[in-house]
Protein: DNA-binding transcriptional LysR family regulator
Amino acid sequence: MIDVRRLQLLQALGRHQTVAAAADALGVTPSAVSQQLTALAKDAGVALVERQGRRFILTGAARLLVERADVIFAEMERAEADLAEYAQGRVGSARVGSFATGICDLVAPAVAALRTTRPGWRFEIVQAEPDRSTEMLRSGELDIAVTMSSDIPPNATGEFRLAPVMVEPFDVVLPYQHPLAACTDLELGADLADAHWIMSPPGSPWYDCVAAACHQAGFQPQVAHTVHEFSAVFALVRAGLGVALMPRLGWTGMPAPHVVVRTVRNTARRHVVVVTRAGYDAEPLLSAVREAASKVPVPAASPLLVSGGGAA
Structure:
């Protein structure tokens, strides 16, 4: 490996032709120039200078190195400029992982906004479920993880840094013809304990979060249908086959004919956080994700959409 500092000395010698002049130009001693040029010739394995009186002439091999040096130093200057831009937050790159609904409602709009406000930044988005995010950060597969937990997330550790984004409530999705569809103030235990429930399989984060809230409200949900996808939930609710508590990021943007979404008191909640390695700064993405979270819609006071009839 050729030492760049030694290459700079060779370039200076080619310009000034004497060791003393090269040393003066670089602010070092003539003996230092001689020693470093000798070491460079040893690294290169070829003769680099020929002495003619008090002057030194570069060999063909040395001239080849100097031609490359111009390109190398230009790239180094650009790299230093890029580092200065990075230090000031104007350029950068990051691999961002998130669960699917977090990508839809938080990460995608955040990155889209940053394309305008921080055009020097590049982001690669990767779908990463919460149970894998931490390990992907640890291995370097991700720089930033937008993840979630049904519990209050722990404080930052020596290994990771956590930043809260939002506390996401679960809203009830009802068939449009449901007796509670016209209500705007629902309570989980009092109003929904006897409903037929649509849930994900036991052991899944969605099921565990909803089941815990129901138990806290004093009842065991009567599970009528078990599905994995939120689109399947909407299809079953639309058909009048049950109700469901869905995380707010899960139903936003979904087509909702014949479906009503309502807020619920004492509902399930999950905490959405941004996690990074302890030494990594999540900005500017963190602020952009928080801004996107502030724009997540809440259920309207009237049914969201009725097929063929518009908003009710």
